[in-house]
Amino acid sequence: MSDIDKDKVVETLNRILEAELAGVVRYTHYSFLVFGYNRIPIVSWLRGQAAEALTHAQQAGEMITHLGAYPSLAIGRLLDSHQHDIGTILRESLEAEGAALLLYKDLLALVEGRSVMLEEYARQMVHAEEMHAGEVDKMLRKPGDLSAVRAAS
Ligand SMILES: [Fe+2]
Questions:
Q1: Could you tell me the pTM of the whole model?
Q2: Alpha carbon of 56 to ligand 1 centroid (Å)
Q3: Is residue 26 part of a domain?
């Protein structure tokens, strides 16, 4: 196996860390703004997403220090359209999750065939984020509508 380009890998892991931390803030923020009959399960789902984003941020940070590098203290872009109907929240989530997925795919391309540990990690995260985006996509469909909202990548 050839060596990884450590600087590029750390740079990508730091973008992932920042994106996941933005997810923690975004999902927590959204969870305060759900009103109506369906509030309880949707708030619970959003808080679950915030917790998962925190776990993902922690995993990325641990990878950075594993490589002997310094984890970013910055936070990724926070989307807030100030429209808090559930459709807008879910569409913003899908957009942000799509951006995180691309970062994990960038990481996979950097480490594929070079580091079993990092490749395994990147593959697991691509799997987790694609499944997650698929779940949000299903939530955005009208009942009975089989076609995906977003194009498959
Ligand atoms: Fe994530």
A1: 0.91
A2: 5
A3: yes
